[in-house]
Amino acid sequence: MKKLADDVEHVSRLYAERFGIDRDATWFLLKLHEEVGELTQSYLMATGQARSKGASPEELATNFHDEIADVFCQVLLLARFHGVDLDQAVAAKWLVWSAPENR
User: Do 39 and 70 touch, CB atoms closer than 8 A?
Assistant: First the structure.
């Protein structure tokens, strides 16, 4: 996961430099919120609960998948910015429940 986070950081840094964005702690959190909003909108559109704006079902599905990727990448960036070891955090919070004594 660290390699992926490093690659995503590189792209995000290039984007920020190109558009003059100061990626501070607030930006990372608000950008995640923005992407979750876009994911919500794409889900509603893909499931027929919002206007499709002329997009085909295939386009709506692709957009939904793209928005999931955006949210995932923003989570990686937020964690990286705050020094969170996601492998360790996921293991401690989620994967611990897969141990036989916790089933």
Answer: yes
Q: How far apart are the first and last CA of the chain?
A: 26
Cβ proximity of 16 and 23 under 8 Å = yes
The residue type found at 77 is: L
- State how far the Cα of 13 lies from the Cα of 8, in Å rounded to an integer: 9
Q: What is the tens place of the pLDDT at every residue in 19-61?
A: 999 999 999 999 999 999 999 999 999 999 999 999 999 999 9
Query: What pLDDT, on a 0 to 100 scale, did the predictor assign at position 103?
Result: 74
pTM: 0.92
Considering the domain 2-102 in this protein, what is its CATH number?
A: 1.10.287.1080
Where are the chain's structural domains? 2-102
* Interatomic CA distance for residues 88 and 103, integer angstroms: 20
